[in-house]
Amino acid sequence: MQHHFCPKSFPSTPKDIISDESRRKQILIVGAGASGLFAALSLKRMGVVNVTVLEASNDIGGRLKAVRPTSSDLTLDVGAEWIHSTDGSRVLNSMMEGLALDGDNDESNKVELITYQPKWYFGKRRSKLMTTIYKETKFKSATWYSWLKDNVYEKVKDNVELNSPVSEIRYNNKQEGGEKAVEVVLANGEIRTADVLICTVPLGILKQSIAKDRTSASASLQFNPALPIKLQEAIHAIDMPPGLRVLFQMKEKFYPDLTSANSLFTLLCNPNEMTLAYDATLGKDREENILAVVAIGNEHAGKRFGGMSQKKVGKEALRIVDDLFDGQGTVNLIGEPLVQDWSEEPFIRGTYTFPGSNRHRRTLGQSIGESGQVIFAGEHTSMKYYSLVPGAAYEGRRAALDAVGMMAD
Question: Which EC number(s) are documented for this chain (predicted)?
């Protein structure tokens, strides 16, 4: 995991570059994950005043989420967790470069990181190869969620509306007599209008929006008119599989740094299908023993855990721990496991996008509408940095620039 896994630079967002006329135009952003919040901050930096972020859930972050698995103040990520670079500080600084607002504290982006180079095991066999080549960065006491909240959300929180799920996006409206180009219908029936809309909902939600067997339970978003056929084909073509993380508090640390339930050969052949059990507090100088199990992929997460209740997911994950460590999971377990199943989150429906054709990703990132008034952004629209938080941030900044360009036309 080297530097090139994350962007070295991000789209420039010059300060206060728009005209007075454009400044008054309305931009709506659907989704307050990393991409949506970075889009909002970029727009604010460039001088756009009327920006509203509509978030369906009761919290920001999207697939960034932190929890307290014990009664102490320990917080751990249960969504994105690794920075995926050997120089995490450079990545975080690059993400925020050029986004300072008047009155910002230059120290706001400072956070303590740790070098993450776990000892890898496949079953009971240690892998010198993976232990040597796998090296990256993690937060020491902070989390991806807290970093996003402190450094981005706090600057745009007055623009964010939580508990505001969108049920329909109407575009291609005729612009006569000052009429806005886009209408957004909220789940409560309220209608919002905008000159430009940035849609940052996860690919899993876009897949539901074009499903043939749409029902109120399976599809939470509708586009009117229907999305262009090429865009629908791209949505179908890119995979966003199931995935989950389970945290266990243990009496004793009976497990090594990281153990793969896959064989080394299997993992190298298909690194997108995996089940890992790892020390969630490695390098964090904590006394708690927290063992995490992560399952990702259509086989490892979908077939093994699909359709289970959270309680059954916890039991099945504990069975994996017992199989790997000779029953020590059940013997040492304290309390109930903490389960985060991203496949079951109603406004997420999956983990992150898997590799696919750049042609399809390029299509996912294109705007739609007669004047391109609907822009899509998220890790799924990135051709090079998909699945990564920095990739989502990059696309949010890119979408903001696209929106400003449309308002200037």
Answer: 1.5.3.-
Q: Return the closest-CA partner of residue 41 out of 65, 60, 64, 20.
A: 60
* Pairing of β 50-54 and β 160-161: parallel
Span 3-118+133-240+353-408: which CATH code?
3.50.50.60
**Cβ atoms of residues 364 and 238 within 8 Å:** yes
Q: Which strand ranges, in their side-by-side order, compose the sheet holding 374-376? A: 160-161, 50-54, 26-30, 196-199, 374-376
Domain ranges in the chain with CATH number 3.90.660.10: 241-351
Handedness of CA 307, 308, 309, 314 (dihedral sign): negative
The CATH class, in words, for 241-351 is alpha beta
Residues near 349 by beta carbon (within 8 Å), at least 6 away in sequence: 202, 204, 205, 207, 208, 240, 342, 343
Interatomic CA distance for residues 270 and 132, integer angstroms = 20
The helix-helix angle for 34-45 and 389-408 (nearest 10°) equals 40
Q: How many Cβ atoms are within 10 Å of 222's Cβ, its own excluded?
A: 17
Give Cβ neighbours of residue 220 (< 8 Å, ≥ 6 apart).
56, 165, 167, 205, 208, 209, 346, 347
Closest CA to 298 of 342, 340, 242: 242
CA distances from residue 328 to 88, 201, 255, 257 in whole angstroms, order as listed? 34, 40, 9, 15
> Which of 76, 65, 307, 346 minimizes the C-alpha distance to 201?
346
Instruction: Give CA–CA dist 146/152, Å, rounded.
Output: 10
Contact at 8 Å (CB) between 317 and 323? no
Q: Which residue has 């910002």 as its token pair?
A: 104
Structure tokens at 173: 């409206």
Q: What token pair was written down for 278?
A: 């790892």
Q: What is the location of CATH 3.50.50.60 in the chain? A: 3-118+133-240+353-408
Kindly report, residue by residue over 40-88, the tens digit of the pLDDT: 999 999 999 999 999 999 999 999 999 999 999 999 999 999 999 999 9
* DSSP label of 349: -
**DSSP 3-state of 154:** helix
For 275, list phi and psi in degrees, rounded to 5. -135, 120
> Can you give the pTM of this predicted structure?
0.95
pLDDT tens profile 258-302: 999 999 999 989 988 999 999 999 999 889 999 999 999 999 999
